[in-house]
Amino acid sequence: MIHKNSARRALPQLSTRDSLFPTDVDKDVLRSLNWTLRQEYEKQQDVFKFLSKPPTNKHDYKYIHNPRDACLNRKIDVVFAVVSSPENFDNRLRTRQGLKGTYAYTPNNNATLLFFVGRSNHHNKSRKFQVGINMEMKRFGDIIQEDFIDDYKNFTLKSVSVLKWVNVYCSRAKFVVKSDDNAGIKPAAAVEALTRYRQRFGNFILGRWNTKNIVQRKAEAKNYVSFKEYPHRTFPPHVLGRAMGFPVSTAKLLYQASLRARPLWIDDVFISGICAPLVNVPVMADLAFDFKFNIW
């Protein structure tokens, strides 16, 4: 590990003697630029230090269904990862027949559409739901199901399952477009936005800002978060998890961060508000991810 002071000494300082800069550049400008470079360098050192820690959050759930060949033997540029609940058969069918399915099933788009679910814990219908999922997988071959309880408080597990699967089974793709099964976006616009931002940024997350950052402390509320789970009054800036996009290289960083960061069950806060800053991934809003409900 490089100590911060030694990192500063190791970082070259720009001056007007460098051929990259004209001799009449203001010295204050150079000082500002050197400060910026130093800050970025130290951020990267912090990322290396963080990722060198051993994982504290295991995500080793067994696969009930895993179409591991979904990205094999063909070029895949975009993974449309749709998180869904086991019982949402109609939403998945509508998604296949809607804009995302149309885009993914068009060969020239080099895309694939996959659904991520957990295991139902319904008090008397879980077996029925599982039989339905088994039949759905046999018919469409696009279900990725891990053996964890699919519950409101396990949203983060489902999002991490997306990051893990892409990291292991589709690492050569370019982008991930992650969405809920009832959140509609225009796929072509989302891919265009990701491609455009990729020209300027190596890693990033695109989405729609969540403007409601006050932590819910009423115990009877569905989205209640205890002080033990999260001690601060407000959540860090983050985009809504219902629709977000990022490069596959970002998915790899976020997955590694998720194994080491303090866990939080609210997935959009955890992924884009907690994990992203830990690996120096900028989070930005773009209208292409301004989703609409129940439009497939």
Automatic annotation (TrEMBL):
Entry GO terms, CC: Golgi membrane
Domain of life: Eukaryota
Enzyme class: transferase
GO molecular function, one term: hexosyltransferase activity
Protein's cellular compartments: Golgi apparatus membrane
Family: Belongs to the glycosyltransferase 31 family.
Protein name: Hexosyltransferase
